[in-house]
Amino acid sequence: MPIETNYIFWIIIAAVVLIFLLDEISEYLNIKSLVPTVPEEFKNVFDDEKYSQSIKYTKVTTKFGFIDSFFNVIVFLTFWLLGGFGWLDQIVTNLGLGPIVSGLIFFGILIFSSSILGLPFEIYETFKIEAEFGFNNTTIKTFISDKIKGIMLGSIIGLPVLSLILWLFENIDMAWLWGWIFISSFSLLMAYLAPAFIMPLFNKFEPLEDGELKESINKMSEKCKFPLTELSVMDGSKRSKKSNAFFTGFGKNKKIALFDTLIANHSTKELVAVLAHEIGHFKKKHIIQTLVIGIAQTGVIFFLLGFFINSKPLSMAFGVSDPKVYCSLIFFTLLFKPISKILSIVMNILSRKNEFEADEFAARVTEDPDSLIRALKKLSADNLSNLTPHPFYVFMHHSHPTVNERVKALRALKL
Questions:
Q1: Among residues 130, 278, 355, 382, which one is catalytic?
Q2: Which residues does residue 228 pair with via DSSP β-bridges, in sequence order?
Q3: Catalytic (active site) residue 209
Q4: Are 279 and 291 in contact (CB under 8 A)?
Q5: Close Cβ partners of 75 (under 8 Å, ≥ 6 residues apart)
Q6: Over the Cα atoms of the chain, what is R_g?
Q7: Cα(290)–Cα(358) distance, rounded to whole angstroms?
Q8: Distance between CA atoms of residues 208 and 134, nearest Å
Q9: Contact partners, residue 377, CB within 8 Å, separation at least 6
Q10: What are phi and psi of 96, to 5 degrees?
Q11: Are 265 and 405 in contact, with CB atoms under 8 Å apart?
Q12: What are the angstrom distances between the C-alpha of 337 and each of 207, 257, 343, 395?
C-alpha cells in the first residue's frame, strides 16, 4: 500500500529532520567554541600536547558522529519512504504465524538489520578512533564475544518481554496499565539482578584488597551512614583506558564498583572524594527521584500508546493498510520522538542540578573540596574531555555540568 501523507506523516518527518538539525547545530557550535590554549585552571593536568589531543579527539568524534547520524537518518527515511515497513509487514503477515510470533519476527528483522548496518561504524570507532587516541584495549576476541553474549541476552530476556507486551495489547482491556506495571516491575528487577548475574558475564569483579583505600572508603561509608555491603574492582581496562565508578543495590544492600583504571590513576583521597560524590546522590535522594520520574514517564508513554495501538492514520503513514499491534509499537516510538527529546533535555537539566548537589555533599563530608577538584580535573585529562563545550551543546546533551563549572562551584563553597 502507498504511504499516506497525513498529519502523522508530516509530524514524524518534521521531528526527524528538526532533531537531526538541532543536534548538528549544537555539534557545530561545540567545535567553534574550542579554545586553542589550555584554560588556566587546568594547566596542572593538561600539558600542551595532551590539550592538543583533547581538541583533536573532540573534532574527530564530532565528525564521526555526524557521519553516523546522517547515515542513520538517510537509511531510515529511504526505507520508510520507499515503503519498506509495508513491504516487511506483508512478508511477515504472509507467513501466517499469528500476531505474537509475527511481531517477534518483525522486530527481529528490524533490530538485526539495524545492528548489521551499524556494525562497521562501531568497529571503526572502537578499533580506529579510540585506538588512535590510546583508549582502546578491546581485542577482536572480546569484541566478538561481547556481541554473541549481547545477542543471547537479548533473546533470553527480550523475546519473553516483547511477547508479553504484544499479548497484553492483543487480548487485555486497559493493556497500557498492565504494560506499565509489568515494565516498571521488570526494570526494578533487572536493576537488582544485573549487577549480580549480567554484568559479571562481561567483566570480572574482585573484592578490593585490604589496605589504605579500602579502610578509607569504609570509614567514609560509616560516616555517611551508607549501607555498603560490597566493595569491588572491575576490570574496565579490559576494553578501555577510560575511568569510572558506580554503585548499585536497593535498601540496605549497596555495592560499589571501581574501575581498575580509576584506582591506578588517582590517590586515595581523590578516590574517597569521588565515592563521597556517589554517596551524595544516595543521601540527597537523587536515585529515588530518578526512579520515580522514570516510572512516571513510562506510565505516560504507555498511556499515550494505548491511544495509538491499531491506529489507522498511524499505520497508513507508514504504508501499512491493516493496523497491527507490533507495527503500532514501532511507529508510536517514532511519533513519540519529539516528546522523548524534550524529556531527555529536561532530565539532563535535573541531572546537572543533582551533580552540583552531590559535589557539594562530597566536599562537605570530606571537608576536602580540593581532592574532588583534583579528581575531576584528572578525569577530564585522562578522558581527553572538551573543557569548553558550547552552552547550547551542554543544554542539548550533557547530563553533567562542565568540569569548569563544577570546579568553580566547589571553589566557591564556604565550608
A1: 278
A2: 254
A3: no
A4: no
A5: 117
A6: 24
A7: 14
A8: 26
A9: 41, 42, 44, 45, 403, 407
A10: 65, 40
A11: no
A12: 42, 34, 10, 18
Residue type (1 letter), 14? A
Break the chain into its structural domains and give their ranges: 1-136+266-415
Grid cell for residue 169: 495489547
CB 274 within 8 A of CB 262: yes
Instruction: Calculate mean pLDDT across residues 243-264.
Output: 77
Q: How many angstroms separate the CA atoms of 374 and 270, rounded?
A: 7
pLDDT in tens, 148-162: 999 999 999 999 999
232, 226, 284: which is closest to 251 by C-alpha? 226
State residue 251 phi and psi, 5-degree precision: 55, -130
Counts of helices then strands in the chain (DSSP H, E): 18, 4
pLDDT in tens, 341-367: 999 999 999 999 999 999 999 999 999
Residue listed under C-alpha cell 558550547: 390
Query: 4 by DSSP, 3-state: which?
Result: coil
Report in angstroms the alpha-carbon separations of 379 from 46, 99, 373. Answer: 11, 50, 10
Active site residue 278: yes
Neighbours of 127 (CB within 10 A): 15
83 grid coordinates:
515503503
**Alpha-carbon separation of residue 100 from 47, 109, 164, 241, 318 (angstroms):** 58, 14, 9, 43, 20
- Out of 359, 360, 368, 382, the active site residue is 359
For range 189-211, the mean pLDDT:
86
Three-state DSSP state, 258: strand
pTM score, two decimals?
0.90
As a residue count, the chain comes to 415
Report which residue type is found at 380.
S
Q: Which three cell numbers stand for residue 280?
A: 551524595
CA atoms within 13 A on the CB side of 1: 17
